[in-house]
Amino acid sequence: MSLQQLGKNRFMSAELLGSKLDLSSEMDELGDLRGVALIKSITGGDMLTAEKKGKDPFHFYPKTKLVAAGNHMPLPEGSDGTDAFVDRLLFLIFEHSVPEHLRDKELISKLLREKDFIATWAIEGLRSLMRTKLVFTESDAGIAFRKGYKSEKNSVAAFIEDCCDVDFGVEDYREHRRNLVDAYKRYCQTNCIKIINSTDFFNQLTNAGFKTHKFRMHGSSPLRGFLGIRLIPEVQEIHKKSLHEPIWNDDD
């Protein structure tokens, strides 16, 4: 069953009784990933209460390992404890796509002929894992993906941390709205993070405590902006060089 099914259908958790492995061949690209609390319980080995349709509820400790594949990782529904949930995930990134004309149609048969060697190799891998007390080795690509995945859940917070200086008590810490949103969009594009619309971006800045005001910067006419925040010098330079490629207008 897919992780989405597990989160949407209250009867699906009963199917995990006696299961060692749940494989989801394709992640759903639509909507958020539901049932985060249930997935955390499964990965944490907590007791589950499950039921089959028309039957009495029962309790069991899940032994199932969850494996899902796909071209897109849906965001977890809600925000509470998101980082704790993501930290339980191990990402295996397949960076190379094999063109159709280069795919080996006999690959399954070839692998089956080498099944004894593959089984020996897998056992050696298990022994290595046991030596590390069941802690998997993560690739640099997987670690980078996790960071980006966390950032996608709160792209504005990640942008502020990586691209801005913040000080509510310094008068020079101010930035026009259009400068901030242009830099935010370029940051998201560079890091392959989903971009939220301008209205939501400004609302999140307001909710973070930044006050809005009209002011001049570098001889400009008075424009709306935020106080207590400014782009770091490196980002300011990138913004200046990209002014001939506007990606937002102040009427949004």
From TrEMBL:
<dbReference type="InterPro" id="IPR027417">
    <property type="entry name" value="P-loop_NTPase"/>
</dbReference>
<keyword id="KW-0067">ATP-binding</keyword>
<protein>
    <recommendedName>
        <fullName>SF3 helicase domain-containing protein</fullName>
    </recommendedName>
</protein>
<keyword id="KW-0547">Nucleotide-binding</keyword>
<feature type="domain" description="SF3 helicase">
    <location>
        <begin position="1"/>
        <end position="107"/>
    </location>
</feature>
<dbReference type="InterPro" id="IPR006500">
    <property type="entry name" value="Helicase_put_C_phage/plasmid"/>
</dbReference>
<dbReference type="GO" id="GO:0005524">
    <property type="term" value="F:ATP binding"/>
</dbReference>
<dbReference type="InterPro" id="IPR014015">
    <property type="entry name" value="Helicase_SF3_DNA-vir"/>
</dbReference>
<dbReference type="InterPro" id="IPR045455">
    <property type="entry name" value="NrS-1_pol-like_helicase"/>
</dbReference>
<dbReference type="Pfam" id="PF19263">
    <property type="entry name" value="DUF5906"/>
</dbReference>
